[in-house]
Write a structure and sequence with these properties.
alpha/beta; 10 strands; four-stranded antiparallel β-sheet
């Protein structure tokens, strides 16, 4: 079973259209959605979560339809979309106590383990955390309510190289241990090359490729030998890719 299936998502805005976006996230996989800023990554993620209502298309989480079984679907998802809207002067333990009330499957033992593994101190306030630690805190919250799928929007953007490496290693470890599946958007191709099982390449609101990293490199072999070279060529409108499966 796939953790996520998106089929034919469409969403029109003045000057931009998300058109027939389809892809899947297999269970236990790390899937990276890559594209330049404005390609449609955030609109796609918000459409998946029902934060914006698609004009057309279907979304299923673990076989369940989002429109018909929204509450049950959301209990299985952990989400981090951009900068978390936490009160900056509140301690983590205070925020966590509030968050736990919303999830019937909240597990304090899992939360404590995540804090230990991630180096989180509940006595610290949000504004005392680095950008990377704030992402880890959001991951800790997600893991503690039994999320089977993490959906993250640009989680490594703005981080220093060491912090980025720590996060992508964490993504890989979570998927490898069977803890969850992960879908994250990015424009940093080197992060995908280190941890992604599959690549969803999106340009101007359309999915150009949903494949393994090797499959993506073969398909667009005429555009470059690395994912970064391919992304640059695609954004320039080059179409000299291969049709290799």
């Amino acid at each position: 079973m796939n953790a996520l299936e998106a089929c034919g998502l469409c969403k029109a805005y003045p000057g931009f259209r998300l058109e027939d976006v389809s892809f899947s996230v297999p269970e236990g996989a790390v899937v990276g959605m890559v594209g330049r800023n404005g390609a449609g990554k955030s609109t796609t993620l918000k459409s998946l979560l029902g934060l914006v209502r698609p004009d057309a298309g279907e979304v299923r989480f673990f076989g369940r339809d989002l429109l018909r079984e929204g509450p049950a679907c959301r209990q299985q998802i952990g989400v981090a979309l951009g900068e978390a809207g936490f009160y900056p002067k509140k301690k983590l333990k205070t925020l966590t106590a509030v968050a736990a009330r919303f999830f019937p499957d909240w597990d304090d033992g899992t939360y404590r383990r995540c804090c230990r593994d991630f180096g989180l101190d509940g006595e610290k306030t949000v504004d005392q955390l680095s950008a990377g630690m704030r992402v880890k805190y959001q991951l800790a919250l997600a893991m503690s309510h039994g999320a089977r799928l993490l959906i993250l929007d640009e989680p490594t953007s703005g981080l220093d190289p060491v912090s980025r490496d720590e996060l992508v290693a964490l993504f890989r470890a979570l998927a490898r241990d069977g803890a969850c599946s992960i879908l994250f958007s990015t424009h940093i191709t080197s992060d995908l090359e280190k941890c992604a099982d599959r690549i969803v390449l999106i340009r101007a609101g359309r999915v150009l490729c949903d494949d393994t990293l090797d499959g993506c490199l073969r398909r667009f072999a005429g555009l470059g030998s690395t994912l970064e070279e391919i992304l640059i060529s695609v954004e320039r409108g080059d179409s000299r890719g291969s049709d290799a499966p």
